[in-house]
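TL;DR need structure tokens for one chain.
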Amino acid sequence: MTDELAALRASLAERLATMREVDITALPPPLLDVAVRAAGPGGLIVVKPADWEALREAEAFAGRPVPWWARLWPSGRALAEALAADPPAEGAGVLELGCGLALPSLVAARAGARVLATDGSTDAVVFAAHAFALNELPGEIAHADWAQHGDALAARGPFDLVLAADVFYTQPNIAVALRLLPELLTPGGAVRLADPGRAGTRDFLAGARGRFSLATRTAGEIALHELRLE
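>> reply
TL;DR here they are.
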């Protein structure tokens, strides 16, 4: 292990233990077996657990949730590519919901946006913060669950742009998003949503038609929806 990777692992371990409120020795080893990869448009770097299946098994054994945040999913990649091709304006306020490894947020920050990347997993927040640091990009990363912290997020806004990649895999997220998104956006603000074709997204889009205009295009198997507050 190089000195740089050892230092990164030590920093991750310290922050992960603090956020989990446990001793470092209680962290599952696959969480600290990390990979640093150029994975985004223009060579942006992400930090992620190297073996997702091993981490999933370790978390299941400990009775913790599946670490969906710890993979670079196709929707996140597609949203990042779309943002690189059509970036937010410099200085725009951008919020990412369920950021995971935060690749779309990194693209937005590189374009000069003021980014707040959020996730309901404290582990995701730690990894995302380290990705921002490694890319030498400004941005704020916060632990925020939609249902629990929606009002607090709205108080931080309004935002010009809200980003979300593959977030409607559970039914409760739909009702929360329909209530919350209009409160998060500036007048005329937009939501850019990437999705692999989940039934929950179809339900969300049907419910959003009364408040938003909708434009959709595809990138391979991923649908890219832009909803603009009317």
